[in-house]
């Protein structure tokens, strides 16, 4: 490429365009159009606006970049490679290939410099709200006069598709309300989606919509105008009280003579002949692929290298901070490491049977409040349900635009955005975020739950009102299939504790769990506190299933989770009175149980003891793995009804009498 007649900046932008076209063509799969059209935006961000250090992608005060339009990931991969991250030209050639660093959408933990996994549109947009909340909270807790440790910003590039997704509306509303002025989003307004022009389905005024959300909005009419882009980003930086949206009119597949502004460049390779035309059009040799001019590489590597100096300046600032505020520095370093303060387990409450029945949602709230002072990084809230979910940290302020030091969050009735924001908070080292709603509304949170499991990050999802036991609200609010659907998500730990003390242990496991999210499934109705002196003194919740109450030479296994455990304990006593010995197994977590070795599993479910009765007020799907072909399941095969909980349990067979009847029938 002859660049003497072009600026070095333009040469760099065009290099990204050609690399994107080449990589998609080689893979015969991908989205070349977006990175080709958005390359100037990428240049302004990586060459001018953002603070980062390719030599240390984990630098605490780096600016965060999120590609919400994850299908255009080659834009990000190209700039990561050019600026010096641990990503090679060979990695670009392996785009979308097995075990490569360059997956078809950005994946956290796979590629250096990728801050979060995006793909489903709208998720990255909403994740950024969590990133912004985390930065504001860290700054409020640790920044001191003369020591502005955390002042980083969150940048994102979003697409027309992001703007159409409902989660974006939820997240944008929340961000505007919280005055997250550290958010700077560039909207790649290229007017094209897979089916064709966005005009087929989308004609709203996005700028006015975001102004109504209390965002600072600018419009750049030409996405190739570097000066206009740079000025808009600088104005967004100066705006600290409102999140910023920069609407940029771009042209998908810019540089392609025949595919520019067409849907044909959105999700398909341009074709060999069109790639040749792109190269000719942009001054590249059409017979060569993956060409990076030496001057271009040196230019971007020089910019990337400046990040080491910026980080060293921050390190010097932190060193002085550590001398001035040693306790805060020690706290931050401990929490950032993922460790918890010594003695935190000593704060865990113990519930006694003579203190009365306790709903597990209320027990969970007591655990949270018992730990709040000891775990300053534990923060969260609910989707407008804290009185019902027990998730308020009493005595602590609410997080607001003016009070970012608060630890109680009011996500509003925005379950989807709450889940995505929790993910953004969870990838910020040093924080343990939680969010709560009713179990039935986990349906609104499925994308962020799944993405958290993919990323192996650890937000804690609290789901209360876990069965028909919630009562009169009826079928629309009574979960039936939700438990098994959550259990179907790989790497998600689902825990449904049987009583208050199992709930305490569930929180202990959740806080210590390091490689994935945890969902706590809790009751609305009050439950007996199981007498650990009478039954098994050691709660085996961390093993997923344990023998709660045994009998000599048992003929039958009674297996239950959650509120049904106390039910089968009563049934065990009735059976014993009739001379039938049964073992009661509390099984709060299938996932934790499956992590145990074969020897432990055999102690709980002996191969020779095949008469088994499982009881759970949810779908029976999946239970056959544990009850065997000689067993039986008391569960839900229909939706519930609107009635008091006691009437519903009677109607659907969750009674001592029915458990005894089914057990005796099995043995007969």
- Rounded mean pLDDT score: 97
Low-confidence stretches: none
Number of helices: 24
Largest sheet: 6 strands, parallel
Task: Enumerate the strands of the largest sheet in spatial order, edge to edge or round the barrel.
Answer: 10-9-11-12-14-13
| CATH architecture descriptor name of the largest domain | 3-Layer(aba) Sandwich
- Strand-pairing-aware structural class: alpha/beta
**End-to-end gap:** 85 Å
State the CATH class of the largest domain: Alpha Beta
Corresponding CATH superfamily of the largest domain: Thiamin diphosphate (ThDP)-binding fold, Pyr/PP domains
Please describe the structure with a list of short key phrases separated by commas or semicolons:
Rossmann fold, alpha/beta, single chain, five-stranded parallel sheet, 3 domains, 668 residues, 40% helix, elongated, 24 helices, six-stranded parallel sheet
What can be said about this structure in brief?
This protein is an alpha/beta fold and 668 residues long.
List the topology elements.
Layout: H1 8-27, H2 33-49, E1 64-67, H3 73-83, H4 89-93, H5 123-142, E2 154-159, H6 160-164, H7 166-177, E3 183-189, E4 192-193, E5 196-197, H8 206-212, E6 216-220, H9 226-238, E7 244-249, H10 272-282, H11 294-324, H12 326-336, E8 358-359, H13 360-371, E9 378-382, H14 386-389, E10 408-410, H15 415-426, E11 432-438, H16 446-455, E12 460-464, H17 482-487, E13 493-495, H18 500-512, E14 518-521, E15 526-527, E16 546-549, E17 556-560, H19 564-577, E18 582-586, H20 590-594, H21 598-604, E19 612-619, H22 624-627, E20 632-636, H23 645-651, H24 656-667
Parallel strand pairs: 1-2, 2-3, 3-7, 6-7, 9-10, 9-11, 11-12, 12-14, 13-14, 17-18, 17-19, 19-20
Antiparallel strand pairs: 4-5, 8-15, 16-18
